[in-house]
Amino acid sequence: MQLSDHTDMPAGHEMNQSSTSLDKPQFSVIIPAYNGERFIGETIQSVLAQTYKAAEIIVVDDGSSDNTATVVKQYSGQIAISYVRQQNQGPSAARNHGVSLARGDWIAFLDADDLWYSKKLQTHRDYIRNNPDVALFWCDMDNIDEHGQARRDSKGTDPLAQIIFDRPVCPLPSAVVMRKNIFDLTMGFNTVLRCYEDVEYFFRLANAFPVMFMPERLFAYRKYEKQSDYLRMRGLIDNWSVVNALLVLLCRDDSTKQTALRRHSASIYSGAGRHLLRAGNLERARYCFRQSFAQRPFYGRNLRRWALSYLPGLRTIYRRAKKHAVRA
């Protein structure tokens, strides 16, 4: 998609929701999956266990090489569940494809390794009834590991999310329920992106439509090692440069948002540089530190990390002090 596709919303947009869709919303659950056989059965079970039933489940298999299809097809007949396979194109394309097939008037996103609690859709229904002008709702969450055990909540804070969403972090896809007609109007997730696609889309949507946070913890976000930190950092850096450019356009008329975005972008680049510094990839780490300085010239933490990249002795001590250093 071009930059112009992701900035200004059409003037005079309307919600155009019928009273039926507000009183008895029909939820289409969109599950993008890539090599998801390990957890997707539990994920689907958490949808089937909802006290307010989903209208359908659409699983978009993004080119898996495992037994994702076999697991999903075990649930045929229990609910209107569709399995669609596509060539690997990333989560943005998978979600967009799923929404294009949806018949419900509300879209509920769910990643293939997360779990909903049984009253998630019922709680969304109640909020929809009481807040007819809201385009997107999202809830709070718990954190779990690959074994389903509780993890400590993250203490990180995104200053831009704090300004736009009045929350420490951007909504995660599995937390979100939104109107299908608004998704269609905003043209969905940016398919150029394979990470940070949710950040870009939800910021873009919240810049144009009313959104609402639900303080209830209604799902479990599963966080575990999916790929090496080194590979993840490479994708993060490449994608963040695109996302940052798009968000700069969204924030161009608001100096407060511009300042928050610069601080957040500086933190992302500096954090990526830290991982690459531990991995010993000094050239790439210094690139990240330079990008961080460009966003926030006097960021002390970044200055310290940049200096470490030029001081072999201190760098060795630093790497030894970090028990979870990544491999190059």
Q: Using the alpha-carbon principal axes, give the shape.
A: globular
CATH architecture of the largest domain: Alpha-Beta Complex
Instruction: Bin the helical content.
Output: 40-55%
Q: How are helices and strands ordered from N to C?
A: HEHEHEHEEHEHEHHEHHHHH
Radius of gyration: 21 Å
SS element count, helices: 13
The CATH topology annotation of the largest domain reads as Spore Coat Polysaccharide Biosynthesis Protein SpsA, Chain A
What is the strand and helix layout of this fold?
Elements: H1 19-23, E1 27-33, H2 40-48, E2 56-62, H3 68-73, E3 81-86, H4 91-101, E4 106-109, E5 115-116, H5 120-130, E6 136-144, H6 159-165, E7 176-179, H7 180-186, H8 197-206, E8 211-222, H9 229-250, H10 255-279, H11 282-295, H12 300-308, H13 312-321
Parallel strand pairs: 1-2, 1-4, 2-3, 6-8
Antiparallel strand pairs: 4-7, 5-8, 6-7
Q: Short description, anyone?
A:
The chain has 328 residues and is of the alpha/beta class.
